[in-house]
């Protein structure tokens, strides 16, 4: 698994770097829907590489999930599959740059699935606190963490979805309004996820304060993979906010390579973390005896 994971990342980087040069739209051509939004011609090669690698990651995650019967984590491989579809949709989008349905499907399938990646971390955090340590290490009731943050993500999900739909309009006013709505949704999602990372750090600090050494505990890897994957997801969130904050024609938006290196790649690294360190075994190794449990998650 680890070697396959490294190969996925290397293949992603090679494919993107080879495909991302020389794909800007000529200023003498009539602008299409895609060029009006992105200001470049999407690379089919990069889309294929990303789509294939996300498909492989999805297959690996589904395998992990079914082998461990961890149905609570189903959101992760499903979302990864939708991401793969989103990348594959960039291929017909490059061929039919004025197709509104293709553009909207591609946008929604690459913008929205990461919310499910975050949801997986929320659920894992709650199960970790309840099953492995103690509720007092979380300043939000662990049983409600996933509920609160998923509600937040659903809200930002709907905001981003509405903004993404308006952004596809050829009407300048609607396009700008859609971009602003999309930016607001991404900012809200970023702040919400930052709060979650603070929650994880708070629990980690409390455990260290009480003398626990995570590297010596069976549940220790859960803290590391939670924080590592969350950091990767946060890179994507910050990139998206800066990209949209620069406005139509901004440097990040008009260079496709940054979409792959600062958006798609961090997300891929984050979900591939769970291919190597599927958390079920750490949760099962660390479950407290029944007489120590104060409830069930």
UniProtKB/TrEMBL annotation:
* GO CC annotations, alphabetized: membrane
Q: What is its main location?
A: membrane
- Where would you find the membrane-spanning parts of this chain? 43-63, 70-91, 103-124, 181-202, 222-242, 257-278
What is the recorded membrane topology of this protein? Multi-pass membrane protein
Q: Name one Pfam family in it.
A: RTA1
Q: Where in the cell is it found?
A: Membrane
Q: Which UniProt keywords apply?
A: Membrane, Signal, Transmembrane, Transmembrane helix
- Domain of life from the UniProt record: Eukaryota
Q: InterPro entries recorded for this chain?
A: RTA1 (IPR007568)
UniProt signal peptide: 1-19
PANTHER family, per this entry?
Answer: PROTEIN RTA1-RELATED
In Swiss-Prot or TrEMBL terms, this protein is called Uncharacterized protein
């Amino acid at each position: 698994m680890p070697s396959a994971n490294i190969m996925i990342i290397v293949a992603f980087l090679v494919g993107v770097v080879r495909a991302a040069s020389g794909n800007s739209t000529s200023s003498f051509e009539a602008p299409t829907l895609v060029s009006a939004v992105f200001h470049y011609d999407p690379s089919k090669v990069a889309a294929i590489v990303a789509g294939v690698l996300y498909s492989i990651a999805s297959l690996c995650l589904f395998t992990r999930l079914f082998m461990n019967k961890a149905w609570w984590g189903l959101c992760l491989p499903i979302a990864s599959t939708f991401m793969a579809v989103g990348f594959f949709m960039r291929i017909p989008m490059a061929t039919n740059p004025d197709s509104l349905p293709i553009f909207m499907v591609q946008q929604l399938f690459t913008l929205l699935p990461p919310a499910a990646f975050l949801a997986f971390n929320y659920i894992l955090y709650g199960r970790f606190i309840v099953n492995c340590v103690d509720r007092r290490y979380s300043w939000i009731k662990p049983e409600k963490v996933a509920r609160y943050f998923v509600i937040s993500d659903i809200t930002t999900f709907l905001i981003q979805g509405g903004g993404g739909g308006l952004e596809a309009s050829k009407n300048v006013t609607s396009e700008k309004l859609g971009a602003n709505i999309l930016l607001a949704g991404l900012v809200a999602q970023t702040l919400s996820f930052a709060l979650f990372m603070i929650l994880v750090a708070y629990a980690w600090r409390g455990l260290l304060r009480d003398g626990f050494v995570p590297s010596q505990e069976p549940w220790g890897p859960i803290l590391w993979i939670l924080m590592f994957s969350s950091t990767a997801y946060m890179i994507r969130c910050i990139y998206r906010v800066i990209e949209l904050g620069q406005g139509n024609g901004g440097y990040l938006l008009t260079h496709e390579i940054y979409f792959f290196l600062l958006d798609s790649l961090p997300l891929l690294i984050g979900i591939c973390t769970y291919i190597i360190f599927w958390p079920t075994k750490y949760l099962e190794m660390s479950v407290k005896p029944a007489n120590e449990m104060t409830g069930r998650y």
